[in-house]
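ARCHIVE CARD
Drawer: 12
Card no.: 0347
Subject: one protein chain, sequence and derived structure
Cross-reference: see card 0346
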Amino acid sequence: MGGRPRPPDDISPHEFFTSWVPASVASDAERRRRLGETRASLVFALTGERLELFTVHICEGEVRGETGRAPDADLEVEVDVETWRRLNRGDLSAPEALVLRRVKLTGDFVLALKLHLILG
């Protein structure tokens, strides 16, 4: 994951998905280029004390985040908040999280391979 920008450790999931991710992609021309003509909606279900749902919309290099679940999501990612924080810090890699069954993916697995372009 190299030198990608990392969100603050104390960032809220709401701030991360609705502000930080869109701003991070918008400020990175290479990530936008690599997303290319991708058009998709991804739902992130963060579990823990309560369920938090966020949808990230990707449209030709632009990313927009909102609260709630898109009814026609192309991919759903379910992860507990602690694992999500470990992934953001770089303490845990996405492949490792999948092997350990800390992340559950439902939907377009090819799109799942692009998650690093979207989330960093």
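Annotation on reverse: The first strand starts at residue 39 and ends at 47. Residues 13-26 form the longest helix (14 residues).
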